[in-house]
Amino acid sequence: MISGMRMRGLMRKEFLQIWRDPSSIAIAFVLPVLLLFIFGYGVSLDAKHVPIALVVEQQDAATASFTGAFRKLDYFAPLPFANMRDAEEAMREGEVEAILHLKSDFGRTIFQPGGAPAQLIVNGVNANTARLISGYATGVWATWLQQYAALNARSFNVPVMVQSRVWFNSELKSRNYLVPGLIAVIMTLIGALLTALVVSREWERGTMESLMATPVSMSEILLGKIIPYFLLGTGGMLLSVAMAVWLFGVPLHGSFFLLFGVASLFLLVALGMGLLISTVAKNQFVASQIALVVTFLPAFLLSGFIFEIASMPQVVQFITHIIPARYFVALLHTLFMAGNIWSVIVPNTLALAIMALFFMGLVWRISRKRLD
Q1: 23-52 pLDDT, tens digit each
Q2: HSE-up of 168 (CA within 13 Å, CB side)?
Q3: How far apart are the C-alpha atoms of 9 and 339, rounded to whole Å?
Q4: pLDDT tens across 58-114, in order?
Q5: What is the pLDDT of residue 334?
Q6: How do beta strands 76-81 and 98-102 pair?
């Protein structure tokens, strides 16, 4: 039988412990702000102002018009070079990421069957940036060629006309993709890492033994741990969502109340994982290492937060199905960028509900009011 008076006393104790512990406040509120600032402003998967070398063997109207198309875009920062040897040396030294080489007869052969002699060399050390540069350059070439042909009253028949339409993130800002996913990592830290550390600290200090000697039941102890940290995690989630929408301008197309519901469900999963870790490791150092390996690193690397799951090997893709953050990241991306897409929301929410029941049920089953 759960006593309301004992529960109030336990929760008051936990809130006082949270208030007196600067590390708990830092993890719950300072760390989310810090991570959001780093990923919101410091980390970008976009290719902007990429230095590209321009080597033009003979200047004419065509080459001036074509290189001018590169200078008009924010994607590139063109740098002129007199010859290919200097441009290649600049690429080896990391001064430029690509080389655009226009031969001397570029202007004369644009509309001939063989095409104009132009060469694009891309630094492939960073494969993602190399693909972006190649795609951007190809787009610049196709657009410029049509405009130049129309300007010179020349016929230029393109077999396929491509008209791009970008849904859900029309500005193609990586920030709109990174910031919502980061909320899953933040809630993992608040729920699993903080809970595991706080409970293991109580074992180290001996306060857990004193609590075991009282008439409170194990269910009351667990509820007394879950409720305060659930409220703390909710506060961190609300702070993160507010920063995402109002500071970083990430659109929230879905329902806020639906977002709050699925976030609460994921927080229960994270709390269950943290409490489970605390029952295994009663030392703060061991608990922190287990929490990092079991919760934080998988949430960061295998949830789809940064790396696309479909691009991973089949074995790793299979492993991601046991990572709770995978489902929460999918829900965050959908609710923020697309809206209430129920074909995505229902199965991922169901997966989180099953995991919440599993971890909470396992914690209740293995927790005993004993000191061994």
Answers
A1: 777 777 888 888 888 887 877 677 778 899
A2: 14
A3: 42
A4: 888 888 888 888 888 888 888 989 888 899 898 888 888 889 888 877 767 676 665
A5: 92
A6: unpaired
Of 33-42, 322-331, 336-345, the range with the lowest mean pLDDT is 33-42
Residue type at position 78: P
* Secondary structure (3-state) at 160: coil
User: Contact, 101 vs 118, CB < 8 A?
Assistant: yes
| CATH 3.40.50.800 applies to domain 50-151 | no
Element (H, E) at 99: strand 98-102
Mean pLDDT, the chain, whole residue set:
82
Residue 161 is predicted with a pLDDT of: 52
Q: Give me the long-range contacts of 11-14 (CB less than 8 A, separation at least 24).
A: 11/224, 11/227, 11/228, 13/224, 14/224, 14/225, 14/227, 14/228, 14/229
Pairing of strands 118-122, 76-81: unpaired
Measure the CA dihedral 88/91/97/103, to 10°: -10
State residue 52 phi and psi, 5-degree precision. -130, 135
Task: Please return the burial class of 170, using the count of CB atoms within 10 Å of its CB with bins 0-12, 13-18 and 19+.
Answer: exposed
Helix (H) or strand (E) holding 38: none
Q: What percent of the chain has pLDDT over 90?
A: 20
Contacts for 66-72 with beta carbons within 8 Å, 24 or more apart?
66/102, 66/106, 66/141, 66/144, 66/148, 67/100, 67/102, 69/140, 69/143, 69/144, 70/100, 70/140
pLDDT band at 169 (very low <50, low <70, confident <90, very high): confident
CA distance 303 to 182: 10
Relative to beta strand 76-81, strand 50-56 is parallel
Q: Which of 269, 265, 251 is nearest to 334 (CA)?
A: 251
Overall size of the chain counted in residues: 372
Mean pLDDT of 191-198: 81
Domain boundaries, the chain: 4-43+173-366, 50-151
